[in-house]
Every structure is written in structure tokens, then in C-alpha cells.
Design a protein that fits this description.
mainly alpha, 3 domains
């Protein structure tokens, strides 16, 4: 259960009736404020979002989810990829058939969820390599574990040195002096990071990825992202539906939180409506 500002459905109407708000079915500012007041009165975090905790305390049960038919497995050749022209780069469209066939993108739901996440994570398919050009202030804010103020000054605006320090000695990388941190920095539309991940992905393609890691930011920018989805069993979440709750669940697995959720939802809806 997840109801928040901008939602419009029967559950919102039920919520509004409970709160004494005009039951129009649209979760607007008045409903959000009423939720916050109710949450405060009932000892809950007053974030104005109705998750399972708020709903269960309010109604004593979680509403039964709307039944979603199991997505139909289709041939990759049946995807309406021409509909995506003008919405995502042609180079990405061209990479979809091989990527889908190799990493279990077997229905429109999976493809739409995947493209929405990969697109958001890469600035709409523009960024394929991690930007580590941080100032000293940025280093202290993002990597406080690895830098003192004096050390941050000596590493400021030096991406190679920064990567070798923050990624050295972990994720399968050698210590800082080996240069593995920069060699195996984040690449691809959903950034593949660390020698361990590069080694695992290397087993799925014919080229020597460890010797040619820039292939991840070029030829395999999309495929490496699909490998991430496949490895982390995200397809089963994608199969749950085309609702905001499913996009949120996928986002949490990709991002570790819900940063950029509205943009991810927007593009999921865009791609799903084009492809279905």
C-alpha cells in the first residue's frame, strides 16, 4: 500500500471518507494535510504518505491488491520498438533485441520498467561513465569515510585519484596504488562498479571486459544494466504490474531509496503506453 499526493483512485476516496475530506478520489494538498494531522494524533511519522503502517492503523487491514493478469511472454521480435523512436536514442533501441534475448526481458512490463530505470540513472541515456570530478567540499560530503579536510584538498578535482581511493581495496579491486578503483569505476546506464561485477559480467560476453572495461560504457551500456536487473532478480518485481507501487518497489532495489521517483514513474508510463 502506498498512497501519496498526486494519486487518484478508489483507495484515495476511501481514505478521504475516513478523514472527513471531500471524497473526490484525488490525493491533493488538503488530503495530505489531513493525513499528517491524523498521523500525528496516532503516534506515526507525519509524512503525509499513506503506507501499510498508516493504512493498517486507520482501517485495521491492508486492501486486497487489484488482481493483475500474469504478463504474457512474447518474442523479442514482437516488441513495438519503432514506437520508442524519438523517445529514447536510436542507439539504445538498436541494443534492445540482443539485450532482451540475453537477459530475460520477456514482456512489455519488464522492458518499460527497465528502460525507465536505466534512463533515469543515466540522465536519459546520456551518462555512461561515473563522474568523479569532485571538489574538496564534495568529497567530504559524499565520501566522509575516506577523506579528512586536508586529504580532500589534495584529491580535489582529480577523478582518477579519487576513484582509486574510494573504490580501492573493495568490490574485488586491488588497493589504491593498483589503479583498480578507476579502472573499474561505474560504467553503463546503471553503473557497473568494481572488479567483481566486471568479472561476473565478463562471463556473459565474448570480449575480454577486464582488459577492455570501456566496453561497458560503449557497446554494453544497456546490456550491463540488464545484467544488473537479471542478477538482482528484479524481473519478478517488474511483473507485478504497471502501477506506481511497482515502480516504487523497482526503484528501491535499483537506487536504494526513492530518489527521482516522479521522473521514473513518468517515463515508465510513457514507455509502457508506447509499447503495450
Amino acid at each position: 500500500m502506498l498512497l501519496k499526493k498526486g494519486d487518484n483512485n478508489e483507495d484515495v476516496k476511501k481514505l478521504q471518507i475516513k478523514l472527513g475530506v471531500d471524497p473526490v478520489g484525488n490525493f491533493g494538498p488538503k488530503t495530505e494535510e489531513a493525513v499528517k494531522v491524523w498521523q500525528r494524533a496516532n503516534g506515526l511519522e507525519d509524512d503525509g504518505v499513506v503506507g501499510d503502517g498508516t493504512w493498517n492503523k486507520m482501517f485495521g487491514t491492508t486492501p486486497a491488491p487489484t488482481a493483475t493478469p500474469a504478463p504474457t511472454t512474447i518474442l523479442v521480435s514482437s516488441f513495438k520498438l519503432d514506437k520508442l523512436k524519438g523517445h529514447i536514442p536510436d542507439s539504445v533501441i538498436a541494443a534492445i533485441p540482443d539485450t532482451a534475448a540475453k537477459f530475460n526481458i520477456t514482456n512489455v512490463l519488464r522492458l518499460a520498467h527497465f528502460l525507465a530505470q536505466a534512463g533515469h540513472e543515466s540522465g536519459q541515456f546520456k551518462a555512461t561513465s561515473e563522474n568523479l570530478n569532485y571538489s574538496s567540499k564534495g568529497l567530504l560530503g559524499i565520501f566522509p569515510k575516506y577523506f579528512t579536510p586536508a586529504l580532500a584538498e589534495s584529491y580535489s578535482r582529480q577523478p582518477q585519484k579519487i576513484a582509486n581511493r574510494v573504490y580501492g581495496g573493495r568490490m574485488g579491486n586491488g588497493a589504491e596504488p593498483t589503479g583498480d578503483g578507476f579502472k573499474f569505476r561505474g560504467r553503463g546506464y546503471i553503473q557497473l562498479t568494481g572488479k567483481d561485477n566486471y568479472t561476473q559480467f565478463d562471463k556473459t560476453v565474448p570480449e575480454d571486459i577486464l582488459a577492455n572495461p570501456d566496453l561497458i560504457s560503449g557497446k554494453y551500456a544497456l546490456m550491463s544494466a540488464a545484467w544488473f536487473f537479471d542478477k538482482n532478480k528484479l524481473w519478478s518485481i517488474c511483473d507485478k504490474g504497471a502501477d506506481q507501487g511497482t515502480v516504487t518497489a523497482v526503484t528501491k532495489r535499483v537506487n536504494g531509496g526513492t530518489i527521482g521517483l516522479p521522473d521514473r514513474i513518468k517515463h515508465f508510463n510513457e514507455y509502457y503506453n508506447l509499447l503495450k
